[in-house]
Amino acid sequence: MKKREEARLIHDADSIASITGRRAFLKAGAAGAAGILFTFKLQDLLGKEGAAYDPKGHWWGFMVDLTKCIGCGACVRACKAENNVPDGYFRTWVERYTFLEGGDVKVDSPDGAFNGFSSDPPYDPNLIEKSFFVPKLCNHCAKAPCVQVCPVGASYISEDGVVLVDHKHCIGCGYCIQACPYGSRFLSPEGYADKCTLCYHRITKGLDTACVQACPVGARAFGNLDDPDSSIRKMLGKSRYGVLKADLGTEPKCYYIGLDQEVR
Amino acid sequence: MSPENNSDVGGKGPRNGIFSQAYSRRLFFILAVLVVAGLSVRWALVPKSFGEKGHYRALAPLEEMARKPLLQGKKVCAKCHADEFTRHEKDIHVHVQCEDCHGDGSAHVKAREAGLDPEQAPMFRELQQANCLACHRRLAARPKLFPTIDVKEHFRKVRVKDPATRCQECHNPHEPLALDQRVSKARIHPLIHPCKDCHHEKDIAKKPLPEGHVVTFTCKDCHADIVADFSKKPHAQFDCRTCHLFHKDSEFSGRIFKNGNPKFCLMCHLDRPFKDGDRIPLLESFDAHLDDVAEDDGDRAKRCVDCHLDEMIHSVKGGIGGMVSTPEESE
Amino acid sequence: MMEHEIMNQITGFVFPNEIHVHWTVMIVMYPYITGLVAGAFIVSSLYHLFGKESLKPIARFALVSSLVFLVFAPMPLLLHLGIPERAFNIMITPSGTSAMAGFGIVYLTYMIIVVIEVWFSLRADIVKRALESKGVKRFFYRALALFDLSLDDRTNALDHKVVKFFAALGIPVACFLHGYVGFLFGSIKANPWWSTPLMFIIFLLSAIVSGIAVLIFLFFVISWVRRVTVDRDVIKTLAGFLWGFMIIDVTLEIMEVLSVAYEQTEAWQTIEILIRDKLFVTYVVIQLLLCSLVPFLFLGVNSVLRLRAKMSNFLVFSSSVLLLIQVLAMRWNVVIGGQLMSKSFRGYTSYTPGIWEKEGLILAFVIFTVPFLLLRMVDGIVPLFPPDSALGRWTLEHRT
Questions:
Q1: B29, B316, C98, C301: which has the highest count of C-beta atoms within 10 A?
Q2: Cα–Cα distance between A221 and A230 in angstroms, integer?
Q3: Is the Cβ of A91 closer than 8 Å to some Cβ of chain C?
Q4: What is the predicted ipTM?
C-alpha cells in the first residue's frame, strides 16, 4: 500500500492535472507564479495532443443499452479512479429496478453500485416480475437547467455539447444541484459543484470515457452525434430508445436503449 | 418638526428641484461615485477569456482538457504483458479491460516509464470470489444469457468441496474458456430462444411443454440425434450450452463455440485438493495422463475430445440430424 | 449528522447524490429575512406614499428596520456558499439566465433606494442633533448630514418629495426583490414541490405578512420595555392589514397545494407523502393549523368585536408572534421540504440542522438577532419614532 502511495507521488509530480487543481494551485504559492506555470504547461500540452482536437464539428452524446448492463459496477469504480470522485458522491452510478407482482417498483443502488450488487433484493424471488439495471450519469442536456440557473457562468455547455463546471469560478451556491432533475450533481468537499465531465480530458484525446472503457459488456457507448458515420449514430439509428424525464424539456443527450417508463 | 409635517409644501416652491440643495447634490454625487467605482471594479475583476465563447471562461474547457488521463486501457498493458494480452484477446473476456480487475494502472505505468520497478506500484492481483461474482453472481436483474452462477449450486455440480475455493483455481480469467481460436471466429448461430428467455423457474428446459404452448426452438429440434445420444452419456446432467456457450448477440442469433481445448475439460477434471474425487474422474495432470495412455507422438498431440467424445459426451456429430418437429406433428 | 444516521432515516430510494440536503437552515433564514425587508418597507410606504396617517408613528421605524434587515439578508447566503470568498463573482459575471444572479442587481438597486429614502427621512433630525451637540459628536452628526445643516421649509419640502418619490420607486423594487426569491424556487422544474408560478406571489404575500407581524411585535415589545402606553391607532391599523394579507396569503398557500392534489399528477403521489409524513408537524400542524388558523380567528375577533384594549393587545400580539412563526415554517417547508423529496419520486431523505456548525442553528439565530440590536443602536443615534408619538416622547425624555 505504501509503495503504491509513493508511486502515486511520482506520478503526480509532473502531472498536468495536478496544476490545474485547486489544491495544487494553493501549493504553488503565489497566484501569479501559478498562472505563468499554467499557461506554459497548457500550451505545452495542447501543442502535443490538444491541438489535434477541434471542438467544432463535435456534438457529444452518450448511449446506454439497458438490455446489456449486468450491474457489475466496473463503470462506477473506473469513474471514481479516473476522476478522484469523493467518497459518498457519484459522477455515475447504477440503479437496480425490481418489479414486484402487484405493481410495486423497488429501486436500490447500494453505495451507487461501487461494489456492484452482492445479492438479490430482499423480496420473495417468486414475486419478482422483472428486474434490470440502469446506469446513470449526467445527461449532458442540450438545454441544461443546471447551466441556466448558474448565477456566475461557472456551469456551461462547451462548444461540443458537454456540460462542464469551471471549478475556479464556481461559488458553491448549490443552485445547479437543485435544478438538475437527475441528481447528477453534488457539492465537492472543496466547495464547488462537481459532476460528470464525459471524461472531457479523455474524449478530446481520442480515448474512451473511463466508464465506456471499463464496461465489460458494451452497455455504454458515446460518440459524436454530429457525425452520421459515428457508431453512436448508427446504433441509435437502428434502435428504439428513450431519454429520462423527456417531459421536462431538458433535451438530454444520454439515450437509453430498452428504457422502461418506470425509470426516471 | 419632521419633514412629514410639511406635506402641503411639497413641490410648490420655486427652484425646488432635487439638486437645489447642497446636501442633496452631495448625497447623489457620493452614490454616483460609489456606483461608478463599483462598476469599474467589477469590470476589472472579470476573469480573462470570460465571455469569448459564451457566458463562461473560454479557458475552462481547455483546462479540463489538459487533465491527464489515469486509466491506461489494455493496449498500454499489452506493451509489457504481451503473453497475457494475446491470450486475453482471443477469449471471451476480450471486452474486459485489464484495469477492471487489476485496478487503476496509472501509477504502475508511470513507475515503469520513469525506469523504476513497476512493482513499486503493484497492481491488484489477489482476486477473490467476490471480484468475479461482481459480474457473474446470479441476480434476478442480470440479463438471462449472461453467464451467471449461484456459487453453492455451481460447486455442487462440479464437485467442489471447499466453499471458499477461488474461481481462478479452475478458470483462468485471462482465458476463461481456453478457446482455440478467437472468440469472434465462433459461428453465429440463429434462432436461439432458451426457455429462460421467458421463464424464471428452475430447470424449466427439462419440463414438458404444456398443452397449447408456443413451440420454441430448443437444441433437440434440429439436433435430435445428438441430443438423444448425449442424454445417454455421463455428461447428460449438463446443458448443451455448458460447452457450446451460446453467446447471444441479439434476440435472433448467438455465437456457438466448439471448444476442444483440454484446458476447458480440465477445469473440471484436474485433481485439486478442493475437489471431490469420489464423484468425478480426476487427472493428476494432462501430461501425466498422456504419459499413461499415449503410445506415440501422434497420441500426445491429441485433445480430450479426440478420445473421449464418443464415449463420454456424444458420438453423433455435426450438422442437423433427426426430425424437426412442427406444431402439427407434436400435437 | 453522521453518515449512518442519515442512511437510517432514508425511506424508499433517493439518488446517491441526494442523501445530503444542500440548502440548509441558512437558506431558510435568507428568504425569511428578505421577507421582513420587503414587508417592513411596504408598511412604511403605506404612510409615506399612500398617506395612511395612523401609521405615522411607526413609518420611519419600519423604513429603518427594512434597511437593517437588508444589510443582513446576504449573511446566511454567504455562510452557505461552498466558496464564500468568491461571492462577488455573482456581481462580476452575473448570468442573464439565472434567477439567483438577479440578486446582485436587485439587491444593490434596492439598497440604494432604501439608503436614499432613509437618509432623507432622517436628515432633519440629524441636522437638529448636529446643531444641539458639541465636539466629536457634533462632527459625527455634521458628517452624517454631509456638512450641510440647512433646514427650512424648502429643505423640508424637498426631503419630503424625495422620500415620497423613492417610496414609490421602492415598492416595485421591494416586490421584485422578494418576488425573485419566490421565483428562485418556483422556476425549478426539477422539483414539483417548488415548481409553481404561484410561488412568486405566495412568497411576496408571506413577506408582507411577516413584515407587518415583525413591526407589530417590535412595537409592542418596545412599548412594554419603555413602559409606554401602546398606541392603539397604530396597532389597530396594522392588525387590520395583517388580517387581510394573511387571509390572501394562506388562501393562496392552500389553493396551491389543493390544485396539485386535485390534478392528481405523478408528482402528487410524492407530495402527498411529503405532507402526510415528512412535513406533517411543520406544515399541517404548525404552518396551517396553529399559526394560520389561530391568528386568523384572533385577528378576526379583534376586527369584528369591540374588545377592551388589554384583550385586543393580547390577541394582536400573539397573532403577530404566531404569524412570524408561520412564515418561518413556510420558508422551512418550502426550502427543506423540497429537498427531502427525491427527484426519483421514489423516496425521501431527512434533515436535522446542526447546532454549532457553520450552517447550524446558533449562527442562524445570531444572524436573525443582530438586526434587532442594530436597530436599537440606530435609535440611539437618531430618533426612530416621531416626537409627537408616545414612543417619540419617551426618546426625548430619556436622551442623555
A1: C98
A2: 11
A3: no
A4: 0.91
